[in-house]
Design a protein that fits this description.
The chain is an alpha/beta fold and 271 residues long. It folds into two domains: 101 residues, Ribosomal protein L30/S12 (60s Ribosomal Protein L30, Chain: A, 2-Layer Sandwich); 155 residues, Alpha/beta knot (3-Layer(aba) Sandwich). 35% of the residues lie in helices and 20% in strands. The protein is built from twelve helices and twelve strands. A seven-stranded parallel beta sheet has the order 8-7-6-11-9-12-10. Strands 1-4-3-5-2 form a five-stranded mixed beta sheet. Helix 7 packs parallel to helix 8 and helix 7 runs parallel beside helix 12.
Length: 271
């Protein structure tokens, strides 16, 4: 059973995991280096635990102690009970959901190991908006994609905003980082995947005509908002595919485009 500790000093060193949560650059550097991430809200905390992430501590306002009582009783990590005002001073924002947990990261698998047991994967290049990362992972989980590969410069899927937007779906879809971009795409192809680059370019094949759901193994490549896939990534692809647009719309937000494309890739997949 966890120990519930009432804390009334925002500078208490025991709250260090939760300081400056709105400082994106600080947290980007600090969290991977220290092997932690922050889960926000009851559902996300429970999903992180269910996915096997070890808890370092919880930070709860008083009314959330009873809500999280079963977790408190099961986990030996300390629970820090604080007032909403103190939580805001520590984190830098009003913690609307009243419950935060510091979780221990797991080592990422090697990309080659991840490819071995998958047939429908997402490959993201330089997607560095945490909201888009979270939305893409949520759609990938919901629509049956098996795994995600990230270029070295993609944002962290376990950053608080990504986890929150995904509603914990980042815990459901395994992911790995490629070390060399775009060179490591060759290893994806060698594993039997056809590389499909999602692009609004006119010369791309309409995704329904490309029929990606009929492929034995498909890797859908997504680029960053605005810039899209780089020239090097497009050259490395086996085929360019596009989502047909109407009413003069040239493209969709990458999160929305990903959901449409995932449905096309995963629906009716070979048994």
């Amino acid at each position: 059973m966890a120990e519930i500790i009432t804390v009334d000093d925002p500078d208490d060193p025991r709250l260090a995991d939760y300081t400056g949560l709105t400082d994106v650059e600080l947290r980007r550097r600090r969290e991977p280096a220290e092997g932690l991430f922050i889960a926000e809200g009851e559902k996300v905390i429970r999903r992180a635990r269910h996915a096997g992430y070890a808890m370092r501590s919880m930070l709860l306002s008083a009314k959330w102690v009873d809500v999280m009582r079963d977790v408190i009783d099961e986990v030996p990590a300390p629970v820090y009970a604080v007032s909403p005002a103190l939580a805001e001073r520590v984190t830098g924002y009003h913690v609307h959901r009243g419950a935060l947990a510091s979780m221990q990261r797991k080592p990422l698998p090697a990309a080659t190991d991840l490819l071995a047991g998958t047939r429908r994967i997402v490959v993201m290049e330089a997607v560095n908006d945490h909201t888009n990362i979270g939305a893409i992972f949520r759609s990938a989980a919901a629509l049956g994609m098996d795994a995600v590969l990230l270029s070295p410069d993609c944002a962290d899927p376990l950053y608080r905003r990504s986890v929150k937007v995904s509603m914990g779906a980042v815990f459901s879809v395994p992911y790995a980082r490629l070390e060399s971009w775009p060179r490591d795409l060759a290893a994806v192809r060698e594993a039997g995947f056809k590389l499909l680059a999602l692009t609004p370019a006119e010369k791309a094949t309409a995704i329904d005509e490309a029929a990606p759901h009929t492929l034995e193994r498909a890797a859908l490549m997504l680029g960053a908002e605005g810039d899209g896939l780089s020239t090097g990534a497009l050259r490395a692809a086996d085929e360019w595919v596009r989502i047909p647009m109407a009413h003069g719309v040239d493209s969709l937000n990458v999160g929305a485009a990903a959901a449409v494309a995932f449905y096309a890739v995963a629906t009716g997949r070979p048994a």
